[in-house]
Amino acid sequence: VHADIFSSLDDYAQANFIKVTQVRNLDAKKPILGFQVAKPVKDEKSKETYVPAEHDIILMTSQKPWHVSDLTQNKASFVLGSVLESEDGFLLPG
After folding, report:
1. Is residue 55 one of the residues assigned to a domain?
2. Is residue 30 part of a domain?
3. Which single residue of 9, 48, 71, 79 could bond 41 by disulfide (Cβ 3.0 to 4.6 Å)?
């Protein structure tokens, strides 16, 4: 599995992205996070246009990786996850 993930990380470095504005732990016993994201940029040339959708695989980092080596050569830590629910870009309940 490790090799499969790393071979696909090149796609993540090139993917559209969005800024996370709020993060909250939703379950004390499980690593389930809820987060709120900024509104997508309206500029067609920008990659800051991602809108979370259920079942998406996401990569959360403290800064945007510009190349796959930013992820694979320990230049940045990241969390790989999936979107369980989404409502207009808001992943925090209520």
Report:
1. yes
2. yes
3. 48
Closest CA to 76 of 85, 86, 66: 66
Look at residue 73 and tell me if it is in a domain: yes
pTM score, two decimals? 0.62
Residue 68 lies in a domain: yes
Q: Whole-angstrom Cα distance, residue 19 to residue 63?
A: 9
- Would you mind telling me the total number of residues written for the chain in this entry? 94
User: Using one digit for the tens of pLDDT, what is the confidence trace for 6-64?
Assistant: 566 667 667 788 888 888 888 889 888 888 888 888 888 888 888 888 888 888 787 77
**Token digits of residue 44:** 């067609």
Tokens of 83: 């979107």
pLDDT of residue 76: 67
Per the structure, the count of domains in the chain is 1
